[in-house]
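Structure tokens please, single chain.
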Amino acid sequence: MTFDAGIPSPEVVADDHALAAWLAEVAGRRLLEVREEGLTGKELKDAGDRAAHELLMSLLAEHRPQDAVLSEEGKDDKARLGADKVWIVDPLDGTREFSEPPRDDWAVHVALWQAGDLIAGAVAQPALGETFSTGNPPVVPARTSTRPRIAVSRSRPPAFVEALAAELDAELVPMGSAGVKMMSVVRDVADAYVHAGGQYEWDSAAPVAVARAAGLFTSRVDGSDLVYNQDDVYLPDVVVCRPELSEQILAFVASHGTEA
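Here you go.
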């Protein structure tokens, strides 16, 4: 049975924010369908990666043929370096969690870069039934926890983040997917996400665009700007947090580094 993505309205296609959200939602629906096909383990992971990537590439070719695309699952031919607009996508962020139903901590990332910066983005969490978008920026709720909460990998929390948590008297909140961790700050599930040690542009572009639109602080761990559509797409570290925590986090990293 062929997946029906539907036809976006001309208004959606013309609006960068709306198109990013629609693309993320449609890819998310496709992934939910793949999850019901009876596959498990590596087969399910591979099928999800492939299905979401192929769908996003097809839809972007149809609705924005003039734009370039950088996808985690695609070949980077560097044509994007001379393009006016570049879509930076992670068709399935949190592949491990996707392959472990009913976990909901996996996501689809769709961001748009133009003239040196991110101009639109959306993060869909299909199993949660939520899409966070720059077109309708989320309002970050008032903090409900007395202690700061730091989102970390459920399988490999970095040692320096454990030291940071001790410094801030913070609680570590394990979860999958970089995008889910960043959106956890938007949702008041966590107050910060601090990562160093290996990511690429597609891991953070869409979540950072949404976090910025929501008024959160975003930077690299040394406080410098996150820069996208570079020749080398390795972008190994990121901070997303409530603004009032940024100085303490950056000061800790400046003093102690990220190797501890």
